[in-house]
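Chapter summary example: a protein plus magnesium ion.
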Amino acid sequence: MDQDKINILRIFQLDGTPVSCDDYGSGHVNVTFLVVTDTGRRYILQKINHHAFRNVQALSENIAAVTDFLRSKSSDPRSVMSLIRTKDGAPHTRYGDEYWRVYDYVDGTICLQQPETDEDFYQAAVGFGTFAQLLSDFPAEKLHETIPNFHNTPDRYRAFLETLERDPMHRAAQVQPEIEFALARQAEMSTIQSALTAGELPLRVTHNDTKLNNVLLDAKTRKALCVIDLDTVMPGSSLYDFGDSIRFGAATAAEDEKDLSKMGMSLDRFRVFTRGYVRACPGLTAKELELLPMGAKTMTMECGVRFLTDYLDGDHYFAVHRDGQNLDRCRTQFRLVADMEKKWNAMRKIVEEESR
Ligand code: GN1
Ligand code: MG
């Protein structure tokens, strides 16, 4: 363990002395480590990406407020993330130019990159649907917008066009088909934002990053146990959470798969998730239900546009482990959108059947 990690961990109220601290997880934004102490306790240590999250104080306040609220509604301590305070009682610490925090490790859980069975994906839907349902009476005005306009898709397009115009890495010429694909769908991709602004969709407290690997399943029962990665919990639309789950979990290949022929959307998985989400969050309005397929398409398109923007910009936002990874990620997302377009009528029919 390096001396910096030892110094940082010393700031927090840990049980025992840390004996190891290893890379952990697969996030693209924060940096995560698994810490084990000499008493056998495990913790998650995270370096918070303060370029993405500009106001770390506000970020911690959100997480503390939401986890306290969820804890007051649950009898199972493993079902909610617990921030470990510093010895001064703070929810994070500053060390040099970086910000760090510690969570209790939730024992006996599994975290999947892809569903192994339909039931796993159903459980993810129950996890995120229950999260939305439990937070439906949370005072949304108490939350800070940790990343303003996070799922404002027209604004993501604006940033894309601005980067394309600058083309700082001179990469635009190589990605003309991707640019055209994005531009051809720009108008349609403001559907959700317009409906929200017009008050046709309710504003809810949403998670906003509902990848399958952000819900822990109980290793014994394999049921949804705990929703993690609460950095982007903000007021938003249920369509963001539903859509991002489909984007990631109903995809037939990994987010950075190079062989695009492997990438598509599984209609079976789409059905399973819809069933779980609609049952766990029974308060969805008719408009929300109607727009569920559009939620899936918009979140997938938006994510592809964000990857493309970051590729054009020189890969500053999403961590890359090889050249061209953000372009590969963009291509899988666009492939997924194209597949959704082919399956559009079937998606609508499934929503109708599952929400009857
Ligand atoms: C980022 O860090 P991670 O992997 O949990 C991103 C999400 C993207 C996702 C794509 C704060 O999430 O919005 O959908 O990558 N989070 C942030 O895999 O930008
Ligand atoms: Mg995550």
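Key point: DSSP finds twelve helices and eleven strands in the chain.
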